[in-house]
Request: fold
Amino acid sequence: MERADRPLLALVAGYFLLATVIGGGGTPNPATEVPLILLSFLFATVALFLRPPTLFASFASNRVLWLCALGILAVPLAQLIPLPPSIWRALPGRTVVTGILDFAGTGSQWRPLSLVPAATLASLLCLIAPAIMAYSVVQFGPTARAWLLGAVAAMALLTAVIGVLQFVAGNGGLKLYNQTALRFATGFFANRNTLPDFLTVGGFATLATLQGRREEAAGIHWSRDAATGAALTILAMGTLASGSRAGIALFSIVLLSAAYLFGRRSRSWTLAAVLVLPAFYLVGWAAVNTGALADVGGRLEKSDASRLVIWRNTLDLIPAYLPFGSGMGTFVPVYQTIEPLDDLQAAVTNRAHNDYLELALESGVAGMAVLALTVATVLAYGTRKILAGGSSTIEGWFALGTLLVIALHSAVDYPLRNMTMLAVGGLAFGLLTQARGGPAGALANQHSNAGVTR
Reply:
């Protein structure tokens, strides 16, 4: 590793540890996000001091990628720009609010597009976490990037262990947040559905760290393969303890990847298929049916019709705020204005449980356009990384695997609505860029010295 990378690597690894430990509160428990946001500004300042911006060279070879990043920042920023009353009152979805403001005598004031500017500002400030991760990764050479992936794997294993202990303790024992699932594992998160997302990312990082070397001889490497198997087992146990149906299904992607890597190297695809994927489900089936994880088994057997109701109501609400949206972070007050009495629950409907529907409601056409451009760009840059060979291939697989898991789970939940997973997303996004130090071919020669290949 180059000496110049070490201070920034230590800083960003420390920030990632901090974001993991106190950044998982999200919507149910946002209190820890406030100090983390303040500390993020400090970390960002130090990062800029350690490595002044050299983004122009990176922008030249990654134009569309950085345009996507700017677009993501621009949507909430534009929603905070004050508008004259004549324009604001003419925006779609403002009729009821305008009547209330007129009754209060404040209808003639300038207002931003967002219906709840404070919530939109909070959404914008939370983006500093992925910005720090992406900016730092761009500055690194391949060796520093490999060490950072190792740090992700280590934090995921620690989180899995804590999650298993929480499940064993039961009744909210060892939980970091008050408003959380009492019986199921949550790790460092408030939402147990986010835990398996982080553990799945940790699985990709484990494979990159322990199985990423491409120059090794074919066959079984007992020490590294045993370490990989042990790590994946711990991550799988943490995933099962979360009781998240989608999370358990998505962890299969890691196991399929492990089977592919093992089969390619051992030249025994049948052995890989027989040992890796069925073993996970056999262990899971035994656990949920023998009483060891009976609560998880009961959770897996339930259907969740309430989400279908929320999706239907949100879908009906979106046209009322097109094309500009209601403002990032405004889902709760906007949804409550149309929530039918028959659908009211004891708990507040805090999310749409489908980030695509929620994004369409809050950001309108601009947000969906940025999303479409980002998805296409990630696929293009990720494919280019995978085909480049060497460390670029490893980084590409990790980035695409991570973003694929987030994208899939976003269809039924909200994995990016906490700062920990935002930092993970920023890391994956930054890895799509070319590592500092030369073209992909040169990086492949340097990869043998990376921490990921030990």
Remarks:
- Residues 438-454 have pLDDT under 50 and may be disordered.
- Residues 355-388 form the longest helix (34 residues).
- The two ends are 13 Å apart (CA to CA).
